[in-house]
Amino acid sequence: xxxxxxxxxxxxxxxxPGDWLSQGLAFLLFRxxxxxxxxxxxxxxxxxxxxxxxxxDDLLAAAYALGCLMLWEAx
Length: 75
Hints:
This protein is mostly helical. It has 4 helices and no strands.
């Protein structure tokens, strides 16, 4: 992991419960979305250049992971 991923993952961790299961699932989901880059993450990654683009695609991956965790919690 590099700083952009660490910052995005810390943000994700600050928004979820502190138990180890939630944190582990958050990590797996974050890495899944960061590697897979589903739309619009791939498009953002291709269009935005420089540090902002690198950081923003990780923030989107964190948002996808958070959305999945929130959906899981709601069900």
